[in-house]
From TrEMBL:
Positions of the Amine oxidase domain: 18-443
Protein name, entry field: Protoporphyrinogen oxidase
Family matches, as Pfam families: Amino_oxidase
Gene3D superfamilies hit by this protein: FAD/NAD(P)-binding domain, protoporphyrinogen ix oxidase, domain 3, Protoporphyrinogen oxidase, mitochondrial, domain 2
Entries under InterPro entries matching the protein: Amino_oxidase, FAD/NAD-bd_sf, Zeta_carotene_desat/Oxidored
PANTHER family recorded: AMINE OXIDASE (PTHR42923:SF46), PROTOPORPHYRINOGEN OXIDASE (PTHR42923)
Source superkingdom: Bacteria
């Protein structure tokens, strides 16, 4: 039996928010950590592109001032100033009856209307009051224990005015999470909304949504362009577990522990020998694909008529193809060259699935033509278009996943672990950062359930 110490204490697969935050925490405990990333840059679904003076967020758009404790702890830890995480002015509006209605999802919208009828606003106030009373039971980190149990979004809203669902909750779920409200569990989205206070106090990163990822990566051992193929257990000549081996194109790394900070379907593929109690939950963690088209413009166009809003939600009853139009140049002044504009288009879940495998030209033409009714002159002002595709966009939490979540979070500590928003069943960057904390605690504990080769055998 070899007594050589493995080259690394921990190898982390994935340099998105979860993987980098986890590596940051573990490195501070003195552990030797390496992060492997298949893409050519860090950030994952919080990556930012920089082209000709345009700052283009490819995935996540904003963070919340409240309900994001792990995120804000990391922001403070890295020394970011308030100026580097500015508020987004007038974050969201709703398209209805041929115009844009401001302050949707904001407490002020209860007074101004935000596109809702008086009856719907009263019912929305009732929903928010209930959420305030029951906030302790709407822990976004424990969605399986909320008062709505395993109901879908549509089922949970049946006792409220139809407009609350059709013109607020469902557009939010479809536009920003890619969710089908008829099949997706209500607990995560309601817990998220109650924890963050809706659209009040939303912020962004001045220098791009990948700000934290870049800052973290600069301090860590990160290898990009590394395509991991499999994570396997290592054993000695007697079949006793001695760590893990991470195989990638062109080589392998040996470590004491490994963490898969990747979407659940990817983790399942990379770790085919996962224990049965882990596979059951992993297989229920479906993902909604996400597609986003960023349009660099020669002028600062936006949804009209509007009042400076950043994002406009479009209910499915008004448009079956386009869910959200964002004026990214309104998110922060430094996002575009002076006098220019940047608009992004997010299709509905059904249209996303249809366009995901289509050529860029097809997706751009179809959605820009659709968006002309909301942003007149869009195609004439177009300078360049960038299509962002995420086959695993955000975890689409089903009632079945909720039912298995508690058991999964209490599983034994093993040599291979996980991190990511799916682990918390919370579809946002806070979910990724919070699981980095919980996984770090597990990795710092001794393994309580080792995987041995039955009857002994050759070392792997």
């Amino acid at each position: 039996m070899s007594t050589e110490r493995a080259e690394f204490d921990v190898v982390i697969v994935g340099a998105g928010p979860a993987g980098l935050a986890l590596a940051h925490t573990l490195s501070r405990t003195g552990r030797r950590v390496r992060v492997l990333e298949s893409a050519d840059a860090v950030g994952g679904r919080m990556r930012t592109l920089r082209s000709d003076g345009y700052l283009i967020d490819t995935g996540a758009e904003m963070i919340a001032s409240a309900g994001y404790p792990a995120t804000w702890s990391l922001i403070r830890d890295l020394g970011l100033s308030t100026a580097e995480v500015p508020r987004v002015p007038h974050p969201m509006a709703l398209w209805r009856a041929g115009r844009s209605h401001p302050r949707v999802g904001h407490p002020a919208g209860l007074l101004t209307g935000a596109g809702l009828s008086v009856a719907a606003r009263l019912d929305l106030a009732r929903l928010l009051a209930w959420g305030t009373r029951e906030r302790a039971r709407f822990d976004p980190e424990r969605p399986a224990h909320t008062p709505v149990g395993h109901l879908s979004v549509a089922e949970a809203l049946r006792s409220y005015h139809p407009e609350v669902g059709e013109y607020l909750v469902k557009p939010l779920a479809a536009g920003f999470f890619g969710w089908d409200s008829a099949t997706t569990a209500a607990a995560p989205v309601l817990a998220h909304l109650f924890a963050t206070g809706g659209a009040a106090g939303l912020r962004t990163y001045r220098d791009g949504m990948d700000t934290l990822a870049r800052r973290l990566a600069d301090q860590l051992d990160v290898v990009t362009g590394c395509h991991v193929r499999e994570v396997a257990h290592r054993h000695d000549a007697h079949g006793r577990p001695v760590g893990v081996r991470v195989n990638y194109d062109g080589g392998s790394l040996d470590a004491e522990r490994a963490v898969l900070a990747v979407p659940a379907p990817v983790a399942t593929r990379l770790y085919p020998t996962a224990p049965a109690d882990e596979r059951a939950f992993l297989k229920t963690c479906d993902y909604a694909p996400m597609l986003r088209i960023s349009l660099a413009l020669d002028r600062p166009l936006a949804v009209r008529p509007g009042r400076g809003d950043f994002a406009t939600l479009i209910p499915h009853t008004h448009d079956t193809e386009l869910a959200v139009v964002t004026a990214d140049h309104r998110k922060h002044p430094g996002r575009v060259p002076e006098g220019r504009g940047l608009v992004s288009l997010i299709p509905t879940p059904a249209t996303t699935k249809h366009l995901l495998a289509q050529p860029d030209s097809v997706a751009v033409e179809r959605l820009t033509a659709r968006a002309e009714r909301y942003v007149p002159g869009l195609r004439a002002a177009l300078v360049a278009a960038t299509v962002h595709r995420f086959p695993h966009g955000l975890p689409e939490v089903t009632p079945r996943a909720l039912a298995l979540h508690t058991q999964f979070t209490t599983r034994p500590v093993r040599a291979v672990d996980y991190a990511g928003d799916w682990l918390a069943l919370r579809p946002c960057s806070e979910g990724a950062f919070s699981t980095a904390q919980t996984t770090a605690a597990r990795v710092c504990e001794p393994v309580t359930d080792a995987v041995a080769v039955p009857g002994g055998g050759r070392p792997s």
